[in-house]
Structures are given as C-alpha cells and as structure tokens.
Amino acid sequence: MLTAIIVEDMKDAMELLKSDIEIHHPDIKIINTAQSVVEAAKVLRKVQPDILFLDIMLGDGTGFDVLEIFPELKSKIIFVTASDEFAIKAFKFAAIDYVLKPYAHNELADAIERAKQQIQPNKERLTILKDTLTAPDKKPDRISLHTLDKIIIVNLDDIVRCESDSNNTMFHLQDGKKVFVTKTLKYFADLLKPTGFLRIHQSHLINLQYISAFIKTDGGYLMLKNGENVPVSVRKKAEVIEILDQMHR
C-alpha cells in the first residue's frame, strides 16, 4: 500500500481527486490533504508520503514554495495544473510529468504509474520548470532532454539542429555531441519554434543563429556555421528566405 497526500487549494478539485484515487487506485491510501503552502508544510513535517499530489498555484504561494521548504523531500511528486498553454510549455521544457485539470481517468492512471517508476526530478529541472512558469514571456535558456537512460539539461544556444530519426529526434550540439531523444521532431518543432528554431524540412529543425548562408543551387540548402549543409524542402523555401531577410535587415 502506497501513501499519498493531496495539496490542492480548490476544495471541489481536491474532493474529486481524492474520490478518483480511492475508487480507481485502491493500492494508494490518502493519509492527509492540504489547501495551502502553510497547511502543506505542517502536514509534511509530520509525515512524508510515497506520492505527493501537488497543485502549482495555491492561495498563499505555489507548489514550488512547498518544495523549497522541504529540499530533501523523498516523495514522488505528481504536479497538478489547470489547463494553461504556458504551464504545459514549462513542463515540456523541464521534461517533468504533470496532470492537467480537468483530467481523464487514464491520464491520472498514467501519471501514477510513471510516478511509481521514476526517480525524482532534480533541482535543476525543477528550476527550469519554475523559471519558465514564472516568466512565460521570457525565452527559456535551457531544456531537459529525456534520453533512453537519463535526462540531460542542455542550453538552447548549444543546440545547432535537430534531425528526425523515425519517431525519435537526434539533437546535434555545438561541441559535436549528439543526444538521442525518444520524442518526435514535430514535438520539438512546436515547442522550440518561439525560441528561434525553424523546421526547414520534414527531417530537419534548425537553430536560426547557426545559419551561415542559404544556397539556392542543388535544390536549396542551408550552410551552417559548423560547416554542415542541411537541405531545405521546396515548400519551406519561401519561409526560409523571408526569415533570413528579416534577420539581415
């Protein structure tokens, strides 16, 4: 039997989550609840559960305040957040799992299963999450990449390009290293587009700051500052030329 504590400031949402866990996850025993940072601190001082369901926005602060009070917290954390595109982007940049309110039963079940299997996100990933959440208009400077056996943190400025590898993505870094990530290129193209990356081909996503020149011969390709040449698809040519024009104005 696993123990759990729910930290959620909306009473209805808390009762719903509590009920869902009791009905669908009988192997989890809810030992306490809290509706604020102060309440959560009091509860967690007495006992640390196996799983902590933690809402991001609380009446007197945030879920991060709770984590800062307990830097040595051993509980697996399942973040719960309201539907918000900035919040979702932040979680993706940090490669941290979350449950989106209102959630479906299978989404909650998946989150619980992942929490049982995963080690805790480290302080650096939590910092990326917090920074991206608290400053949604600021361009993130780091991203967590989920490889097959670990999660590594990379500066966006160190990513030269990303290349599709079936349903996976290969990151090519400035120092020549490559990072293989088990997510599609489309996932990263959507996530990184606002931060200065452009999908120039079905298989290629480029960091604009590494472009050296656009060569119109041989079907059209980009020369990069590291000496690599990357093809531009026919339907992306006009967009690439327009963006390069804007950059050089």
Automatic annotation (TrEMBL):
Residues 143-246 form the HTH LytTR-type domain. Gene3D superfamilies: 3.40.50.2300, LytTr DNA-binding domain. The keyword Phosphoprotein applies. InterPro entries: CheY-like_superfamily, LytR-like, LytTR_DNA-bd_dom, Sig_transdc_resp-reg_receiver. Residues 3-116 form the Response regulatory domain. Keywords: Phosphoprotein. It comes from the Bacteria. The modification 4-aspartylphosphate is found at residue 55. This is LytR/AlgR family response regulator transcription factor.
